[in-house]
Amino acid sequence: MSDKVATCPEWVLCDTCRAIVYRKRWIRSKLVCPECGHHTMVDGETRLEQLADPGSLKHLDRPQRDSPDVLGFVDTMPYPRRLAEARAKTGLEGAVTSAQLCIEGSPAVVAVMDFRFLGGSLGVHAGSALIEAADAALERRLPLIVVTASGGARMQEGAIALMQMARTSAAWERLDSAGLLTISVVTDPTFGGVAASFATLSDVIVGEMGARLGFAGRRVIEQTIGKELPDDFQTVEFLLERGFVDMVLHRQSLRAELAKLLRAASPPDTSGEHAEVAAGAGDSVVRDSAQLPADQPWDQVRLSRDLTRPTMLDYVNLVFDDFRELSGDRVSGECPAMVTGLARLAGRRVVVIGQQKGHTLEELSKRNFGMAYPAGYRKAARVMRLAAKLSVPVVTLVDTPGAYPGEHAEEQGQAGAIAENLRLMMSLPVPIVTVVTGEGGSGGALGIAVANRVLIWQHATYSVISPEGCASILWKDSAQGPAAAAALGLSARELLRLGVVDGVLTEPDGGVGADPMLAAERLRSAITASLDDLGRLDADQLKGDRMRRFSAFGSFDTADMAGITSRWGVHDEMAG
Ligand SMILES: [Zn+2]
């Protein structure tokens, strides 16, 4: 807001589009310009009020450490005078204000940086305030939300300010070890030492629309590389596409979305909800292959690819509550074919991961036909680590023709990304349940399927290679897909016989696509029953169970081996 109209009681002038807005409307829209959507900077106190349920705000004690003038620093004025001026101008002690509050009933500790106080710079005082907020979260076992706005470390405190980056990172590490959720709300601008420490260390990074987040400033970069940067460079929208932030939100939806995250990560409620759902559990799961009708493998392949089958996100909507998608692998990109997020399932917390396809060509194309890039596998890994941190079970829904076989995918390390997941999933200290809902395509499927319990829909498939791929390698003729499908043992019935899956979910008449509601009900029952079952095991038992399950694929009895080798025929060719 411009200083000229700041004093005018009735009207506000937007700095960006120059619209003159009625002040009450401006405040109602949370200081976002209703004309152009520009998010005006919010001071710390206003931010806390915007986030808190009425009457829930309780400030934490102010930090015990003051800003030290360790260097006797003087620029155009001595540091102590600069501090005194900032205090007089803002009425604040320092750049960080913190409080405990509730958002839609969920409690959290919130620390807010105020850019008006010496550019929100990170010195001893701000560092102390952040650490004391983290300690309060630890002591009260609450999530920590930090709202960032800063130019970086405070120059006037020299290397001691630099050390606040490590000091705050240590506090975030303590929250990680304690299994407490951390959320950064990145507001404009967040740069330098704040961006390169706690702001980007949080479990979830929420960007406020249009905010900029970066290490070096635009001017420095442009001078260094000698060219102009794109307009959206370093905006959270730009970073979302590149896998560095989880979501970009309008200030108006911030509270609701934070509430969803807090609910999804808060300890399980004790309502009778999941007993009720588990009552009908397991009825539709077949555990003996002899009880399943014989099938035509090629028909199964076609059914598994049917575009009317519910997609991962259809199941997310029908089976889970409070789903909040998390984006980005924080390394190399955001993969639209792999969807991950926090959710609740019949009252319990879960992490959901799966490949998303689509019902139309447009949807399929947007999701890369469910073929994930390395960034997708890395995102899945990131969210699985979060599940481990929060002690939350992992549910994966597999539906992919395979990992994306593209040039960029290879350059980004597709094979290594999948391999890392196989090892990570083996060591995860929480229950993992996988359901193959459509196509279980090769390593691209297994990359999220090293689970304690692996289930499959009756008309889904799971295979070392697509039948067409197998046919073109072994028959030298991709038209021999049906023959390859029969030979590969990829149908649910065969997979159950081989022990690759633990159970087959029977589909409603006409298949899951004909009755998605009933399918969702069966899926929910089967997953909750498996989670109830696994809930009895501790972390070591869960890892041991997974280790035994997958190590067993090497010890077949003679009768099985005879059956398998005769069907395999040639087995020295490449597949994967
Ligand atoms: Zn405007």
Describe this structure in words.
With 576 residues, the protein is α/β, with parallel strands linked by helices. Helix content is 42%, strand content 18%. The protein contains 25 helices and 19 strands. Strands 11, 12, 13, 14, 15, 16, 17, 18 and 19 form a 9-stranded mixed sheet that branches. Helix 5 links the parallel strand 5 and strand 6. It is elongated, with a radius of gyration of 27 Å. It binds zinc ion. Zinc ion is lined by residues 14, 16-17, 19, 33, 35-36, 38.
Measured as a percent range, the helix fraction is 40-55%
Derived structural class: alpha/beta
- Tell the overall outline: elongated
Distance between the termini: 59 Å
Parts with pLDDT < 50 across at least 5 consecutive residues: 1-5, 270-282, 561-576
**What's the total helix number?**
25
* Ligands bound to this protein structure: zinc ion
Mean pLDDT: 91
Query: Which band does the percent of strand residues land in?
Result: 15-25%
